[in-house]
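Sharing a chain and its predicted structure for anyone who wants a worked example. Both blocks are below, sequence first, C-alpha cells second.
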Amino acid sequence: MTWYPPLTTERFLLTASDRHKMKLLNTTTNMCRKTVLGPTYESPVQKMVVLPATKDSYYLAFITKDKVGLQILPLDGNPYRSQAVLCHRDISQLACSFDGRFLFTSGGADCTVLSWQAAATLGGSNLDPFFALLEGGRGGPECREMEEFFYYCQLRHQGIDSMATRQVSSCIPLSEVPFLMRALGFFPTEQELEDMQNEVKFSKYAETGQYVTDVDLAEVLQLYVNHRPVSGVSGEELAESFRVLGLWDGSGPPAIPRHQLLELLQARGEHMREDEVAECFAVLSGEHMREEEEEEDEEELVARNEEFSVDRVVPEWMSAETFAGHILGFPSCTQMSEGSSPSG
C-alpha cells in the first residue's frame, strides 16, 4: 500500500493484491474508485514506491519475488505501460534515491544490493494493448462476441419484445454492464459489481458534479480486462479447499457434509438465502432442465416445485471431484491441474 500521487482532485491510497490487481481507495469515503490490471510477471507485486515527479510525469517502482520494474502513472490497466527485469532470486527490499533517478534492491540469500537507473520508454497506442489481451486480439472471436453482446444489451434495455423502432447508439446504460460481463463468462461477486459500477458512475463527479450513467464499447473493454481474473481457479486450489474444509474417513477423498456446505455458502462471504442456493445448484446441475422436459400437468408441476429443496440437487457428501464435475461441469481436478484452468 502507498499514497497515490496527486494526479486528480481526489486523494487515493493505492493497494496491490496477490491476484495481480491494483485498487485506488478514496481516503475520504473509503470507496474503491478504480480497479486495474497490475503488472503480471508470474509472482504478484510485493512492494511499490511512487517516484518523485520528473517533468510532470510520475512513475511507480515495484518489485515481485525476483523482478524490479516501473509502471507509468496514471494507472489504466495498459500492459504496455509497465516493464520489469530479473534482478535477485528472492528480493527482500526496495528503495529509491531522493530524486527518483535510481532504485536500490537487496536480495535475501545472495546478500547483495543492486543499483538501477530508473528510465523507461513504455506505452501503447489507443486500445491496442487492451485488445491484445483478448483471445485473437482485435477482430478475434472474443472481440466480436463482446461487440455482439454490447448491441444485444441495447435491445434488451429497450425491450426484447418491443415492436417500436430501435435506437442504436454507441453507449449502453450502466445497469446493463453486469449482464454483459456474465455473458462474456466473467461472473463477478455483488461487491465486485458495485465497485465496477461505482468506478464508472463517479469517474467525473469530482470535476463536474455529475454522475456517469452510460458506457461505450471502449470503456466496457477496459472494465472487462481490468476486472476479470488473470487466471482461473486451478485444480490444486479447488482440491486444497476441500482438504481444509472437508472431512476424511481414511479411504476416499476429503468431502464436505451437505449441511456444512450449505452453512458455509449462506453465512460466509456474500450471504445467500436457502432458496437462492437451491436455485443455483438446480441450474448448475441441470435439474431445472430435466423438470422442464418431463411431461406433467400443471397441478403435478406445482406440487413438485413445492417439494423442491436443496436435498434434491446437493449430495449428502460433496467432494472436490463431484463439485467440479457434477455441479460446475468442469473437468476433474486432475484434468484441471494438467490442462488450462477455467476462468470465471
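Comments welcome. Confidence is low (pLDDT under 50) at residues 340-344.
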